[in-house]
Every structure is written in structure tokens, then in C-alpha cells.
Predict the 3D structure of the following.
Amino acid sequence: MKKKEKQSVRLKGQLRVYMQWPAVMSILLIAMNIWIYRLDRKAGMLMCLFVVIYIVIVGVMYFYNKSLVMKDLVEFAAQYGIVQNTLLKKLAVPYALLLEDGKLMWMNDQFREILGGKLKGENVLSRYIPELNRSIFPKEENQTVEMEVYYKDKEYRAELRKVPVEGFSNSEQLLEMPEEKEYFIAVYLSDVTELNTALRQNEEQRLVAGLIYIDNYDEVIDSVEEVRQSLLVALIDRKINQYIARLDGIVKKMETDKYFIVMKKQCFKELEADRFSLLEDVKSVNIGNNIPATLSIGLGLSQTAYVQSYTYARAAIDLALARGGDQAVIKDSSGITYYGGKREQTSKNTRVKARVKAEALREFITVNDTILVMGHKMMDMDCLGAAIGIYRAAAALEKKAHIVVDNISASVRIMYEEFVNHPNYPDDMFVTSGEAKEMIDDSSMVIVVDTNRPKMTECPELLTMTKTVVVFDHHRQSSDNIESALLSYIEPYASSACEMVSEVLQYIVDDVKIPAMEANSLYAGIMIDTNNFLNKTGVRTFEAAAFLRRCGADIPFIRKILRDDLKSYQAKARIISGAEVYMDDFAIATGENLKIESPTIIGAQAANELLDIDGIKATFVLTVYNGRIYVSARSIDEINVQVIMERLGGGGHMNASGAQFDHTDLDEAVADLKKVLTEMKEKGDI
């Protein structure tokens, strides 16, 4: 038995190979001795004597030194373990081992120093650093969890790894672990306080490019006497220069109404905290001007290049102007943020822009053969009227157009059927999305009306199937607008898409002839979006209405087709009767199980009527339809409901906007709406 035990104790690995080298050399010497013996017997005999002596010496030394080598190895292993343990404890990197429940099993001196020396009570790491708890421990052997934590005013980068120790319980006499929990969690901490401080300082020194435009420069200048115009401009310049100088920024006036600014990112954060009070400061400049000056601010911040920051600033200022001005837009690599936008942009009486857009539209229609017109899903009267107006523009240029419609809502069915049943209009005047896709070819163009958001169009796929896309819309632009449009005519101050199309029609061809039926649809669209000429009506709105009246628009007929049936009227009354006043300024109402065909239309009408209540600044009506909740938001002039709806993922117009929820829980939707209203009012956003 002892002999077997001795035989079982032997060297292995590289050390065993090293110890066996003399035996290998002996074999080589024997082979050489045989070769010499064949050449010369005497030399071979002499060589044989030396080989025998060499083998004896090697054998004696191997068996004699083997025990000594084993002894030295054991001593080295013991010393190595002590040195290794000392190195781990004195290692400059804080290091610790945790059990699966987060208890500290072992830590080196650096880790103990971080936690404050001698520990008291139960040694659970999460008691000291709450972020390092069981919920973030790695689950897999090769998984590494990295995160930054804060402890005692310092920042650390923590790295956690799962270290398996199979068979630990069998070899360890003092600690027994369940077989499925035979592992430790190794924790490394690196002090990154100085590094992060340097990174933050470097980031704060990054330059932000910006552009400031005076939205209504011409109107403001024209509203004062000529001798005071230079003084007015000087006061606005002074406001802008003082504001940016206070932030340690630079202002350069590029044109009479345009400024270029540069500032550090840390100052840019002050702008955000200040909620861009410059927007309100400039409005206070008054030396007799009847119209207050408003600004649009576009700021761009790129993490890579300053040129990209300026490109972002250009995109931001364009978006601010497209949304109606009087606001600040910040664009960076992560997205777009809006501030301000509380004031409605003043409508311009000039039609130069409409004429320019009409000429561009005429060129596009002329060079394309297939004209497809589409609006937003659940087409309303403004959308239908604008689409029919574009249809007439194509017909005036002797081109055939098709209107893409999948589902006809009750609000437009009567007008829709008037065209479908009229003998003067072809059967393919209205086509479905599937039919439109089959018509698309290299000579096709798509004209979008009454929306500028791709996902809201009747058939978003059409936008990617053609190179020529044109957009006509009166809603304020959002960040997810149709970017592929070759021609984009977006006027937030316009009352409706029908108003815009009516103006464009007057410049498409000379003495354009619009049939009375088409004039009815355009006039009805203006009436619906202006709530019978009560909301957002300007000089150009009435001029467009007058043009349509000259074309034969029949007011009694329009009033008849816009009437509600008895069930819809009763549903609207139920919605209004259940309205609640929230925060003294907002009316919120809901509609569920209304049992009518188009509850969203009735919801919008109810929102308009709730504005007639004294003291109400904005109204919100939520209706359930097709497994979703639709929100109709309305206001008169004090509240910008668009920015409220954008917080809920929607958008629209300053006085008329909407949003959708992907569920049918009205209580939850109302709670979300109230939360947004509370936050925005507390922060001064509304």
C-alpha cells in the first residue's frame, strides 16, 4: 500500500519534462556510442565506459534529488500562497469577494479603506453602496457588469464578475456552500472622480452654435414711425447682445434680422434653466410699435465637429420657423427639444410665397404623369377639401390625379358620395392604398395634404416608392416630418389646408375654373378648421372664402352636409355634461361607448364647444375608438395645446391639436394628461 502511495506521488507538467532531459540525453549518447563502435571498436569500448558512468551518475542524481526537489516545491508553493495573499491584500486596486446574497466574504486593504476601515454590523455591500445589490449581480459566468457608483463624494467605476468555485465545499473545512451556489461575485472598484471631473470640464467647454432670427421684422418695423425704426432695432440688438454677453457668449449680426451666436455648453445649460427668457424680454420692447417683436432661436450641439453643430443650428432654426416662430429649438445627436412657442405667429398679408409655391407645384405636375394625392388617416373635411383642390390643380394642367382613401369617416361621407355619384368625375378619382402602390412608377409624384408626419399619412409606403414628394400643411412641424419632400409648403399661421390650396389654385393657371362641388368641399374644410370662422381667421382666410364663393360655393348646402344626426348630437351632449374643470383653467371630458360611427369627430366638436365656458383656457376630450384613445385638444389664444400634445406623442396646431394612446383605459389616459398639465404649468411651459 505504501509502495503504491509512493508511486502515486510524482512530478508532472513542464517540471517532469525538465527532470527527464538527462534520460533523453543518455539515449542519444547510447546511439552515438553504437555508431562510433562500428567505426572503431577501441574507441567504441572507451566511449561505452564513459556512457555507463554518465548513466549511473544521472540515475543517482535523479533519484537522490527528486525528494529534495519535491521538498523545495512544497516550500515554494507555501511561500507563493503567502506572497500571493499579501499581494492581493496590498493590491492598489480595491477588490472584494461577495457571496451570492451580497455579503462581503473577503476584501483587500484598498477596498476596506474605501468603506471606512473597520466594518461594523453585517457586512453587506449594499448597506454602504446601495447600487451594488443582488439585482445587478451577473448571472452568467462570462458576464461582466459595469456601472458608475457614488460613495463619500467620490465616483467609482464598479466591475462585477461571477467567479465559479466548483468543489469548494469539498475542499474547504470552514465554509460549506450549496452546490448550485458555488460561486463568488468579484467586485473591482476604480476611482474615476478626477477623470470624470476632467471629462465634464472638457464637455462644458465645448462650443454651441446658434442662430437667432426676428420672426416678424418687417411687420414690427412697419408698425412704428420711420424716425423710430432705427431706435427699435437698436433696442432689440441691445437685448440680444446683453443676454448672450451675460452668458459669456459671442453675438455677430449677419443681417438686419439675423444673428449668429457662439457659447460654451455650460452657459447653454443656463439658457435651458432660464427657459430662454430672451423670448419674453424682446416682446417687452415697445416704443409705439403695435406688434411685439418675436424671436426664433436655433441651437446645435454636436459631439464630433463644430461644423456639425452649425448644421444642427440651421436645422433647428428652420424647424422653429416652420413651427410658427417665437420659440427656441435645440438639436443635438440625441434628438430635438422645444421651448416657448406660446404666441401665435402673425399672418402675413403678402401672397408672394403662395405664388412661388404654386409655380413650383406646376412644374412638378407638368413633368409627371401619375399624380397621387393623400392626406392623413381618418380623413376630415379639411383634408378631403385640400385633396380635391389639388385634384383640380392637376386637371387644370391636363393631368390625371387620384386621391388615396382607405376608410371614409362619417364626417366626410356625404361630400365623398357627392363626387363618387357625380357623372362628371371618373370612377378612379378615389383609389385605395393597394391600388395606389400598383400605379407608382418612375413618372409618379405624391402630394401630401393636411399633415407633415409620415406615420400619419394614409399610406406611408408611398413616400418611399417615389422620388417626388410635395407637402401642403398648416400644422406646426414636428421632429418626425417628411424629410424626403422636394417641395414643402408649411404655413402654421394658415387657418386650414383648404385655405392654402385655395390660394395656390389662383396661381396654377390663369382664370382657373373650379366647379361648384369642389368649391363646396374647400369652403367646408375652411369652416370646419376655423369653427365657422371663429378660430385662426385672418385676412387671407376671408379672401380665400370670397374666392370660393365666387366659384359657386353653396353655403346652405355646406351647412346641411355638416349637420350631425340625433345620436351624434346626444353623444356630444353626454360628453359635455360629464366634463370636469382641472386646475381652474382646463376642461377635461371623456367619451366611451358612444355607439356612433365617428366618436373622434364628435369629440373634436365637443372640445370646441367647451371653449365657450367662461374661464376655460383649453379643453381636452378623450374618446375611445378602434382599440385606441384619441385626444382632441382645443384653445383660443392663451394656451398652446400643441406643445401639450407633443408631450403625449401627438402634435398639430397651436389652437387645435391631438394625440393618441395605444390602449382603452380612460382613467389612465386622463391621469397621464393631468400629470403633463401639472408639470408644464409648474415649469411655466404653458
Residues 1-7 have pLDDT under 50 and may be disordered. The longest strand covers residues 154-164.
